[in-house]
Structure to design on (916 residues):
């Protein structure tokens, strides 16, 4: 059903043939085809398409090189296409243009379009204001259902969505409420549109609200769009459900990448250059490496104990990794719970008093397995842990309980601490937690060893 | 604006008062209030609400104890509410009922509703079939625009969405295409609805398609709903954009939790019991612990080297964690890329030849920092790494390059390998990767040490 091949194997690229095919294609599929071309070939193809189809393609946020294509087109053609695009995508595209193309292009636009685009560009990235489109349907509250429907029929082509109609006060133009198209078409033609406005009051957001919170609103109230209003209650624009889906997907990619211990990338894996990749991963990797150097310092501090009891070093990796693993479990749980608002910042103590018994029980489980391993190896003669092997086993078990408990509690508290001081809780990456728990884990292990083995092995 | 408090501080719970308030509330807010009650109190409140409001509340997937509420209501009242709910949510609710309530409730439903619900229950979990609702609008292709609009007005109340109208062949009832409501209201009243069907053919899915793939379709084509068709081309139901948003959020929670090294939980953190929490985390933690025991075996194998060169043990945690960190970075990148289809299974070699230089460069960066640390500590007299300290520094640097390169390549290949053998790539959790890299990291470290230090320290 879908047709997303660029060209039959072995044939030369022809923008004419491709344009002819894209004109019949579904837009979403055409975008996939265009994404496989170089920006120059893409621009050559777009130039040959009828304007309405070219605009539909450029309007898709899935298009990779929108700005490059606009830049490669003849200036006049580019301006026509930009004016036809939806305001939010046009603003994003203009933002990505290089100078002087950006200023020239803005100057060439008609005044209304330019004002809309520069208005949208003034909002910070990732806010409702920067995502919204100004192409929505509104109606004064003194219109009838028939008048409103007639208005929708006239403006339908130029609006991103017509499924929500915003009813405004005819004098102040303040938002009174939202009427869905489904209610409108079932209403009496002669009735006032005001009779269809629900009594619960409209769900709205403000231009500086974070896009994650807008996503939460749309998902909670099952909306197709949410109006963005200023302090006076005037509608500045709307954020639609399509944009929100893209947002949610982008945010979860960011969360997973951050949790993996790197800065989030903006492009697809194979599109990120080697330099950018090294930068996004290297900074965190070096920071973690420097913090992890504390483990070497801790080991140096306990050097004399290490020399006396080489057998203790055998379990260092095992104990450290158990702390890191329990920590990253707890962190991943709480990052999501905070992101989904299942848990609020003030719930930290509820979480702490749940993680404490959880950590102790999990630690005891691992401790038992550890003891079994030492006993079996000793008894079967697979390895000799020395004359004090029973005490060594007790040390390992006790250290595991301590380290896993610490890992669970620290791992669960870290996202709260980060959110408290204004960071994204997702910055509590698995490697970050592991590093934190590694250093403490070593201290716990050696302290337990000193307590249990003093006088025998140490 | 929102009103989601259960009751004023210190007052006793009264279902009457609460029901009176909920009847005026927005449904989404009412769901939040009900979620704070025990299932018994919730049922007592729901029982007092007018049926249409109770049904709207029970219809929300955000409601935590839908099945418990239905079960706590008088059987007859419960049946009325179930019949009124949208078919997909009603099916989910029935599935969660305990026996004998489940069979009794199904038997009490009217035949049509029962047939729909048992039909939906027959599809496996997380497929399009299990998510779809059967309440959509269809129209035979010989209707006019006016006839179709009139039909929508009549059935509007009982349909989950009316924004897409599915045009069927009047004889075979096969799907011909989808017309959006916005096209319909702008069409000529007397025109045939067939003139409004786009020529590109409808985007459809099949009942056994995974919900993640349905989400991808809706997001790619910016749809408000996608029809689920059988092999003969008949529409079985539709999956709407609201359900898809919930799916995407749920899937990313699963991904983050799996990546954190635990089984995904289905409820909010504070709702998961201690027993379930221990089970979901303990299984993975114990498995990882047992695998990580290989590190102890590796250390035992190199015991004589460890005794001769205690200084080598100091860097074990540092080197192991660097491998784990670079591995979890690479894994998190590739998990998302595979999930978003940025990278296909066949691209594994493209990724491998990118990760190889990336890993080497990152390893060299850490190696340089490691050497600087040893030189500075030695020269400043902070620690004495022995007479062969230069060789020790070289060993640490070389091991870091090897371990980080291995971590990056292995971490990036693991999600491909898992997907290849049919697992979810997200099962490649950070702890899993760390464990894999820990054991190999130790082997790399000691092998490098043997090569460089033989004859001097070893």
């Amino acid at each position: 059903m879908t047709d997303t091949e660029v060209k039959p194997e072995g044939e030369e690229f022809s923008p004419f043939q491709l344009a002819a095919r894209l004109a019949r294609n579904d837009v979403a599929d055409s975008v996939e085809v265009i994404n496989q071309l170089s920006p120059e070939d893409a621009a050559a193809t777009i130039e040959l398409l009828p304007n309405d189809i070219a605009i539909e393609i450029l309007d898709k946020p899935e298009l990779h090189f929108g700005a490059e294509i606009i830049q490669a087109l003849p200036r006049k053609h580019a301006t026509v296409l930009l004016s036809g695009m939806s305001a939010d995508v046009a603003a994003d595209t203009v933002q990505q243009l290089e100078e002087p193309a950006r200023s020239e292009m803005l100057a060439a636009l008609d005044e209304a379009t330019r004002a809309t685009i520069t208005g949208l560009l003034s909002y910070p990235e990732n806010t409702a204001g920067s995502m919204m489109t100004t192409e929505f349907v509104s109606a004064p509250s003194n219109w009838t259902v028939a008048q409103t429907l007639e208005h929708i029929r006239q403006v339908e082509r130029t609006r991103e969505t017509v499924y929500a109609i915003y009813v405004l006060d005819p004098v102040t133009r303040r938002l009174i409420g939202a009427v869905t198209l489904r209610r409108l078409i079932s209403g009496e033609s002669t009735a006032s549109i005001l009779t269809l406005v629900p009594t619960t009051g409209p769900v709205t957001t403000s231009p500086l609200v974070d896009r994650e919170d807008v996503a939460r609103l749309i998902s909670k109230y099952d909306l197709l769009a949410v109006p963005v209003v200023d302090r006076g209650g005037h509608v500045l624009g709307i954020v639609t459900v399509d944009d929100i889906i893209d947002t949610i997907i982008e945010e979860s990619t960011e969360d997973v990448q951050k949790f993996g211990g790197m800065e989030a990338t903006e492009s697809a894996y194979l599109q990120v250059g080697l330099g950018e990749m090294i930068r996004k991963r290297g900074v965190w990797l070096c920071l973690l490496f420097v913090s992890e150097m504390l483990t070497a310092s801790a080991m140096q501090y306990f050097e004399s104990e290490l020399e006396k009891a080489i057998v203790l070093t055998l379990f260092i990796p095992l104990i450290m990794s158990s702390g890191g693993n329990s920590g990253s479990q707890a962190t991943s749980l709480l990052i999501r719970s905070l992101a989904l608002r299942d848990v609020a910042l003030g719930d930290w103590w509820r979480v702490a008093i749940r993680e404490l018994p959880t950590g102790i029980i999990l630690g005891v489980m691992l401790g038992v397995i550890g003891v079994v391993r030492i006993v079996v190896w000793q008894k079967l003669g697979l390895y000799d842990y020395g004359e004090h092997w029973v005490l060594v086993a007790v040390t390992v078990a006790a250290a595991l309980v301590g380290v896993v408990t610490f890992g669970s509690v620290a791992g669960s508290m870290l996202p709260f601490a980060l959110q408290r001081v204004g960071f994204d809780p997702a910055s509590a990456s698995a490697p970050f937690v592991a590093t934190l728990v590694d250093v403490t884990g070593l201290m716990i292990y050696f302290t337990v060893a000193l307590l249990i083995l003093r006088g025998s092995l140490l």
